Task: structure prediction
Amino acid sequence: MTAFLAEKKQQKSTSYKPMSEINVTPFVDVMLVLLVIFMVTAPLLTVGVSVDLPKTKAKAIPGKDEPLAITIDSSGKIFIQDTEVELNTLTARLKAISNNRQDSRIFIRGDKNIDYGKVMEVMSEITAAGFNKVSLITEKP
Result:
């Protein structure tokens, strides 16, 4: 009986060996899927309203906080981030979004084909409400 158990124990120990290599194929598959997902979604992460910005050679304004983007498209519609607003409700919405912080940075993006007066009208509304960090956004040439 002991010989049988010894033989069985020897078979058991020789038939089971731990796998000493790592199979990286599933890891590579997951990374490739994530790469494709990020490549598809990255262009969609920009500000949603499409405008044709004027080109300048000015340097970017440094800042640590996330600015609010006001966009005026080619038809003259005004947007806060992606939400369309009327000019008469613009300052109330800005105050609500910024928690009435007058030092919030506000970027105005105006399509290059609209009347300059429309951009200045929006900018004067914002500055009249007490916001003093208002900047115009352009593209590099």
Summary: DSSP finds four helices and five strands in the chain. Strands lie at 68-72, 78-80, 83-85, 105-110, 133-136.
